[in-house]
Each structure stands twice: as C-alpha cells, then as structure tokens.
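At this stage, I put together a protein sequence along with its fold in token form, as given directly below:
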Amino acid sequence: MDQTVWADDQIQGIVRSVLVVEGDKHKQQRKVMNPAFGPTQIRELTEIFVAKSLQLRDIWAAGNANQGGHSRVEVLSWLSRTTLDIIGLAGFNYRFDALNENHEHNELSAAFATVFDAGAKKTMIPVLRAWVPFFRFLRVDRDKETEQSQATMARIGRELLQGSKASINEKSAWKTRDLLSLLVKSNMATDIPAHQRMSEHDVLAQVPTFLVAGHETTSTGTTWALFALTQNTAAQDKLREELLAVDTDTPTMDELNALPYLDMVVREAMRVHAPVPSTTRQATQDDILPFAKPFTDRKGIVHDFIRIRKGQNIQVPIQAINRDMAIWGEDAKVFKPERWEKIPQGASAIPGVWGNMLTFLGGPRACIGYRFSIVEMKALLFTLVRAFEFELAVPPEDVMKKETVVQRPVLASDPRAGSQMPLLIRPVVRA
C-alpha cells in the first residue's frame, strides 16, 4: 500500500512529481534525486541556512532597538520570507531577496506569495499546476492573479532549469551546490542508464518537493517550535544556555547536530506540532492490516485485523500517532523535550524515517527532504534563541491551527487576518 492519494482519483498516475508518482516511476525519480538530498549535500548548504538566519536576527535586532529594547513580531511571515530566501539559494541558486524590504520587485517571489497565500485551500494543486502542465486543465476555482502567478513560476522555472543545464554542459558549474543543479548533474551521471533518466518535465516537476521541504514545512515548523518554547520557559532557558555555550555564530551542520538539547527541542516540536497532520494512502491490492491491540465493536465482536480492498483509501493520522497517549504517556500533548532522554518503548515501533514519529512519514515514500528541513530548522532556532527571549503576545487559547498546505497558526480573535503568530521578543543580555 504505497500509492499516495494527493488529489482527485482522476489525476492519479499522471503527475510527474516524486510527491505523487507511483511504482517504477517513483523508484526511478528517487534514485536520481537521493544524492541531492544526502548528508554531504546538506552539510554544504548549512552555510546558507545560517547566513539567512543571521540576516533575520539582525533585522529583528534593529527593530528592537527602534522600539526601546522589545517589540511585537509576527514571526510566521518573517520565517516564511527567510525560508523562501533559503530555498531560492539552496534550491535553485536564485535570489528572492524576500528579507530585504528595499529590494526591487521580484516577480517570482510575488508569484510564490500568491500561490502560498494564507487563505489558500488545503491542496498543493496551485503549486503543481505551475510546474506540471496537466494540472492547468483541472476545474479548480482560481482568479486572474493566480493564473498569472502560475505562468510566471512556470516560465522562470524553465529558465532556471536551462541555466543549470547550460552551466553543467560548459563544465563551469560542477561545483555548484544548489539542489536543482545537483539533480540535473545526478540525472546526467554515467551510471544512470538512459532509459532511467528523468525527462526535462520530470525534473521541473520536482520543484514543489523543494518548496515543501525547504519553505512551507520549515517556516511553519519553526514557528510552532517558538510557540512551544513560549509555553515552556524552562525549556527555552535551558536551550538558550546550551546554545550560548557554543563559541561561534556560524555553526556547521555537524556542530548543530552535536547539540543534544537543540535536537530534543526540534524532535519534540515536530512531534507535537507536525506541520502536515495527516496523509492518505491507497491500497494497491487486497490485504489484511493487523491491529496492535484487538478491539471490541458495538456488537461485542472482537477484531484483531481489518480487511482492505484494492483501491480503498487509508488515512494516515500523523498527528494522532505522534500524540498517542498509549505511546507517549498521559502528557502526550504536552511539549516536553526531556521525554527524548528516554524514548518510550512503544515509539520504537513507529515506522518513521526520523525521530520515532511519523512527521516525515516512512518507507519508500518518506519525505525526501527531511534532512534539509531539520538542519534548516536547527540553524534558525540556534540563531534566534541565542539572540532573543520569546513570549507569546496573545493568550494561548487565542492560537488555533488552520490546515492549508500545512498547519498554520491563526488567531481565534482575528481569523480574517489570516495566518499569524505574534510574539514579543527581547534581546538576550549576555553576562
């Protein structure tokens, strides 16, 4: 049961992205793409993660100075701009300059902002349509502005792809480190048979994967991590103490991964606040799914398995499993990084690709960009928590979750304002 249900049944098997293609096509694309998302490549990209995190820190610090040492910041929008800059450089060697408020209008940045609007429907179709021609014919409500944005994304995407291919053919970019160039180079590798190589359309269709891994997922996940730290000030203080003990502002990937409490905070934030709360799989054949524990139905009949039929959809409740009290205890919904000092025995059976949880799924369809997202999130938290103390600017009960492409925060008191997470920040005073 490895078929992903992403949209209408009518479009299954037609889209070209590794997010949704099936069978041998999926294996082919993963084989070509895996090198671009490996540890070696993410290690090279960490410098970009840290540089953009420092730029965001300096922007917030300047705002603090102008407001008497503390300020109210809508962190989600700023983190979204930061991760957009990061995925531009790390993903496509493209400068969005989203953090620079004085930069000239960037048409691709504006297009992304339209497609990922906070009020967007719960679907990736707007993004996929920009890169995969078939999606442009689906009957989905859209306005003229969205259509123009999709055309812009498709045009610039083709330009970026052609630029990467031209540079590689000229042997001038074999040392480039952005994901698109690495993917193109991997696709041109001599150990990849010609019949297994991805077409130009296939390569271009992978851009949504980069966006999910490096932009929306990470900005939302980091936002929820900061929210969680405002609700557990002891954890925030403990994390800051660990981070301030590091004698550099520009840590490497290995230095970030060597910080145990930072790792616990990231794991716990991604467990409690999984950016994507659920997904769906479609059975490719008749099968039997055993239950971990038998249950008795309303008629008194005991069941220890369920029969599924080919074509049936199975909901994978990521957030529910991540917060299952039978696994994590009565405080499963509570953000407590220390629980990772001794992982519950039941968590070892969760088939996740990372962290004994389902946040990045598992198996052959696990999130290919999970390493990218984790290291990017660590770089952001490292830089920001070292520099600022964070406090929630509204009552905790005012913060709700709204699922669009990912689970974003909205305020119950102001839902029409769209996604937001207002925090009060104060500079850390070092002894």
